[in-house]
Specification:
Layout: H1 3-21, E1 32-39, E2 44-50, E3 59-62, E4 73-78, E5 83-88, E6 99-103, E7 109-116, E8 121-128, H2 129-149, H3 164-200, E9 220-226, E10 229-239, E11 242-249, E12 252-258
Parallel strand pairs: 1-7
Antiparallel strand pairs: 1-4, 2-3, 2-5, 5-6, 7-8, 9-10, 10-11, 11-12
Helix pairs in contact: 1-2, 1-3, 2-3
């Protein structure tokens, strides 16, 4: 009897999280979300490692507009196989050089940065939404087991899991956590839609309708060598937090990419 509520709670939560909250916000085509949470004790900076730059030198492009303070998080959109480096912001002498490199996967992910002062090692624990849900369900299941199967949660059962009251209390414990989670998610989704509806009428389309207008003049360009092919890259915008690049194929600009 105990297995059914666990399976039910997992798939309901998974469906709500994937189809509800994370489908609500638009993002660049082909990208997935990355939520970065700092638990390292001090403010950190996160850089995208640009491996497309010509030459052997890697380029590090800052992803956060301001330092990510301890206990806070920030969200970005990125792409599968993109690698990032995290390090302390304005680190003291004993923290200089401390960093961690991690790689983005193909799904929406959360990454948690931690730092162990004894080993002086920073870690990045990357988890998909499915992994987060599984961890939540597992922890709650263990809590309910300790309370109502192995223990004597409310005095109705004998605590060995064979009494009907023990099993009913265990099932109710799982269901209560599921209901509370669904209510919270539903409320967050409603707040998101309310905010969108509040500001949507204020937005205006400023796209230029003049198709003959010349495009921006690149501030520089370089050649990119990839799998035996040579491409011209025009840099239209070069800022610490992002770039606009135009990729030329057969001498024609065919893609504009934002990082």
């Amino acid at each position: 009897m105990a297995a059914h509520p666990l399976s039910f709670s997992f798939w309901i939560l998974a469906a709500i999280l994937f189809l509800g909250v994370y489908a609500a916000a638009p993002r660049p085509q082909g990208s997935t979300g990355l939520k970065m949470t700092n638990r390292a004790g001090k403010s950190i900076d996160v850089y995208w490692i640009n491996t497309m730059k010509s030459g052997d030198t890697e380029e590090y492009i800052l992803q956060n507009q301001k330092p990510i303070r301890h206990g806070t998080n920030t969200n970005i959109n990125s792409y599968d196989t993109h690698s990032f480096l995290a390090e302390f912001h304005e680190a003291d002498d004993d923290l200089k050089g401390v960093h961690v490199v991690f790689t983005k996967g193909s799904e929406d992910e959360d990454v948690y940065f931690d730092y162990d002062p004894k080993t002086k090692i920073m870690t990045a624990n990357v988890m998909t939404k499915k992994m987060l849900i599984e961890e939540r369900v597992k922890k709650n299941t263990e809590y309910c087991k300790e309370l109502y199967i192995y223990g004597n949660g409310d005095g109705d059962g004998d605590g060995d899991g064979t009494n009907a009251n023990d099993m009913n209390d265990f099932i109710n414990c799982l269901q209560n956590d599921l209901v509370n989670e669904l209510v919270t998610i539903k409320k967050n989704k409603e707040d998101l839609f309310d905010t969108r509806n509040t500001i949507s009428h204020r937005l205006r389309n400023y796209t230029c309708a003049d198709t003959t207008m010349k495009s921006s003049t690149p501030i520089r360009n370089y050649n990119w060598h990839h799998q035996g092919n040579h491409y011209q890259i025009d840099v239209l915008l070069d800022k610490p937090a992002g770039k606009w690049l135009t990729l030329h194929y057969l001498t024609l600009p065919v893609a504009v990419v934002q990082y």
